[in-house]
Each structure stands twice: as C-alpha cells, then as structure tokens.
Amino acid sequence: MFVFPEWCEWRQLAGAGCAALWLSLPGLAAAAAIPLAEAERIAVERDAVSQQLGAEGEAMRERAVAAGQRADPRLRLGAVNVPIDSLSFTDEDMTMLELGVSQEFRPRGVTQLARRSMEQSAAARDALSADRRRVVVREVRRVWVELAYIAAARELLQTQTAWVEQMRASARARYTAGEGRQLDILQAGLDAALLREQQLDLDREEGMRRAQLGRWTGSEVAASAGPFQLSAPSELLPLATLEDRLHHHPRQVDFERRIDAARTDTELARLQTKPGWMLDLSYGLRSGEGAAGTSRPDMLSAMVSVDLPVSRANRQSREVNAASADARALSQMHDDHLREMLAMLDEAYVVARKTGDLEQYYAHDLLPLAEQSVQGALLAWQTNRVMFDEVVAARKAALEARLRHARLAADRAQVHYDIDYLAGDDL
Hints:
Number of strands: 4
Distance between the termini: 63 Å
CATH topology of the largest domain: Outer membrane efflux proteins (OEP)
Number of helices: 10
CATH class of the largest domain: Mainly Alpha
CATH architecture of the largest domain: Up-down Bundle
Number of domains: 2
Helix content: 55-70%
Largest sheet: 4 strands, antiparallel
Structural class: alpha+beta
C-alpha cells in the first residue's frame, strides 16, 4: 500500500496551526455574529472624516448666525481739550469729559446675504458628509463581498477535498484488489495536497480582507463579522431612472450649494459697492464757570461718517468680477463632474448587465454540463473504460466552473454596490 508520510506530517502541522489561530482569538467562537447592516452602521459612526465634515458644517452654521448680526456699537470715554500746563478741567471752556457711542451701518441687506452665503456653504458640507457616508458603506460592502466569495470558495474546496479523499480510498482499494494503478493513488494524493494549498491561500486572503474590514469597523467587529453570503441576482432599475437619481447625488448637491454660495457672494460684493455709514453721538460734561460767572453748559455732538469709494474701479468692481468668476468656475466644474459620474454610471450599468448574463449562463448551462461530465467520467473509470486522470480532469473542470460562477456573483455584487453609490437611495 502506497503512503504519503510528508502529507501526513503536513496535515498535522496545518491542524495545529489552525488550532493555534483559533485559540489566539479568545471568545471568537462564542461572539455573536455581526451582520452587514450592523457593520455598515458601526463603520459610519466611527468614520473620522464624516465626523470632521459634520463638525465643519456645524461651525459654518454658527458663523452664519454671527455674520447675520449688526456690528456692535462702540463706547468712547475720555477727556477732551485738557491744558497741559495745569491739567485743570475748569480753566478752559472747551475742556470736558466726553462720553460717546458710535454705530456702524453697512448697506442694507449685507448681513442677510452674508448669513445666507455661510448657510449655503454649511449645506455643501452636509452634502459632502452624506457622500462620505455613501463611500464608507460602499467600501464595507465591497470588502464584505470579497469575504463572501472566500466563504463560497472555501465551501467548494471542502466539498472537493471530501470527494478527493473518497477517490483516494477508492483508488487504494482498487489497487489492493489488483484492478488499479499506484499512479492513481499518487494522483489523488497530489490533488488533495493542491486543494489544501488553495485553502491556505483562502485563509491568507481572508485575513487580509478582515484587516481591510477592520479599517472601517475596528478589529473586534471585523473578527466577529458574518455570516458571509453572496447575494442573489436582482433586477436593475432602468438606466434613465438611475441617471435621474444621479442628479440628486450628494456630490452634485455639494456643487449646487457651493454655486449658490458663490452667486450669493457675487450679490454681496455688488451690494458692498454701496457706501456704508456710521452715526456718532457724544456728550461732553464741562466743569467750572464761564466769563459771566454762570456754570458752563454741557455739550452734545452728533456726527455722520460715510464711506467714499474713491477706488471703486480697482477695488469694489474687482471684488464683484472675482466673485462672478468664482461662480462661473464652479458651474463648469459641476458640469464636468456630472458628465464624469454619468459616464461612470453608464459603464457600471453595462458591466452589471453583462456580468449578470454571464452568471446566468454559468448557472443554467455550464454548471449542469460540468456535473454531467464528472458523473460520466466516474462511471467510465469504475468500468475501466477511462484512466483516473480523466476523472480528475473532469472534476477539476467542474470545480473551476463553480469557482468562476462564484467569482462572477461577487463581481456582479461589486458593480451593483457601485451603482448604489452613484444612484442609490440616500442613507
């Protein structure tokens, strides 16, 4: 009887390694599985960029309230016209203690426009925050799909491994009875070793994907995430409907709000070409007596100051032109970005349709044919009409078809998630 001492030793080492890995994750087996929806929620809640954008939007709203307020009045208190030789408040008629207040008045509507501009900028930040949440959810789903593919591939390999072990036992029994070849036993052993190597590759791939998931959810959540299953095919909405939704994508809303803010800034700059003015009221308290021996009366002053735009052509008009140019630039960027996202949607839609069609072809045609080929080759080998190699080749072809079908299902899910990011419902 032909034996494989190296193979037995390798199996022992692999089993010990798996046991050590399992024991290195305390409580993993007992931990409750975390489904995809919960992983998405955790990822969004702990995303620092989303929190940053939310805080920036909140800060802009606070500034908007401040920008919409009238300037604070100024209080003035001092001594006026005090003679330096005596420092007396009673010697001179014009010496007084003065208390004044002044108030600046900007052109009508400036504060309202300043507040509106800041609020529109805050709305743009909110849109960016919504886009970031979509990005986080998409990335979590993409990693989840890869883990689902690994789980499906591992299940296929385990089924194949069980079949190969049965074939090894059958080949060994046939060789003992004088009906088979020792080469058949060797071939079955090599096939089993190859499957083990593929399973090790899947283990390494799973570790890498769980690390990627941990980047969004944290390592503890990533370690207990699951179960992973490839989603069933689903019908896509009409492309026209998806394109209409794309116009309401958070990135498009971001551009729209920024354009609104730029137009408001243009209107604000145009309004600021009008002069502002300031009112100044002061009360002068005088001491001592006048030439007639009577008490000196107190003094009341009122003044109005008006801005003089002497450099209007090189200052105020330039500000208006600059704000208008900013608005035009944002409009051009918006148009280009919309065209880019529409192209991305069209490409994803075509890929999704073609991938789904190929997946259905595998499911309805190739997989049944591959199973029939395996059964036919197995019956022929049992009656000594074909060599063992043909049975192995048929089984390998069937495994490859199933793995390819699982890969197509994963690719189809990935591109569907891309479409959801571009034209899905708001999160």
